[in-house]
Design a protein that fits this description.
4 helices, five-stranded antiparallel sheet, hypothetical protein yedk fold, single chain, 10% helix
């Protein structure tokens, strides 16, 4: 699954990677969480365009979005045929730019977060689907989900799923700017090749979506030593919530 990710670049970086023009300024983001606005690249009027949508797809046919799971991930193996995703898979595919994502590994009674990044490419693109929902008052909401697949050998020790990465040579095909049939599109939804990603253990501070700074990506081994903390009675941190283990068990809409 992919329940948190980062896009720590400048607008100029995205312009160069995706051949875009007229991008408005945005800040680097190190801890993007579901329900937050995210940047997507999609096809508009025969060209690549950058858009801002909500992370967590709301199907266009939804009567009451609050009754549906928060579809921040969708399994690539079943998405082409699932009611919530088959329409977007046919007509509303997108690229979701990223510079890394986070995954959690259970170690004993705790979960250790890992930053997953590429030593080969600073920016890469997740395979995404988007849709447009209109409420009873005619208000429009664009939203998107990230497609996942089985983890490759690099990530399997941490989690059994990973986001699908679209290669630059397939950008226009995935966006629909180059004609492609269903089977050809499905053939691109495979795990990233071995070595494309590396994993780095990071601080559990990333568990809280309220924290969003470059320090979240510092490897644990590089953190400065600090005095041992004073012993306190165990207390739950209501603001620190790591994503669920199974991307079929999605979070509910607020």
């Amino acid at each position: 699954m992919c329940g948190r990710y980062a896009l720590a670049v400048t607008p100029e970086d995205l312009e160069q990677e995706f051949s875009l023009i007229r991008i408005e300024w945005f800040p680097p983001r190190y801890n993007i969480a579901p329900t937050q606005p995210i940047h997507v690249v999609r096809a508009e009027k025969g060209a690549r365009m950058l858009g801002l949508v909500r992370w967590g797809l709301v199907p266009s046919w939804a009567k009451n979005p609050a009754d549906l799971p928060l579809f921040f991930n969708a399994r690539s193996e079943t998405a082409p045929d699932k009611p919530a995703f088959r329409g977007p898979f046919r007509h509303r595919r997108c690229l979701i730019p990223a510079t890394g994502f986070y995954e959690w590994k259970r170690e004993g009674g705790r979960k250790q977060p890992f930053l997953v990044r590429s030593p080969e490419r600073r920016i890469f693109a997740f395979a995404g689907l988007w849709d447009e929902y209109a409420d009873a008052n005619g208000n429009l909401l664009d939203s998107a989900t990230i497609l996942t697949t089985a983890a490759n050998e690099d990530l399997a020790p941490i989690h059994d799923r990973m986001p699908v990465v679209i290669e630059p040579a397939d950008y226009d095909r995935w966006l629909g700017l180059v004609p492609a049939g269903k089977e050809e599109l499905v053939s691109t939804l495979v795990p990233a090749r071995q070595g494309f990603f590396e994993t780095v253990a990071v601080d559990t501070r990333v568990n809280s979506a309220r924290d969003d700074d470059a320090g979240l990506q510092a490897p644990l081994a590089e953190r400065p030593m600090a005095d041992p903390p004073k012993r306190l009675p165990p207390q739950g941190d209501k603001g620190s919530i790591a994503p669920a283990d199974d991307d079929d068990r999605q979070m509910k809409l607020l």
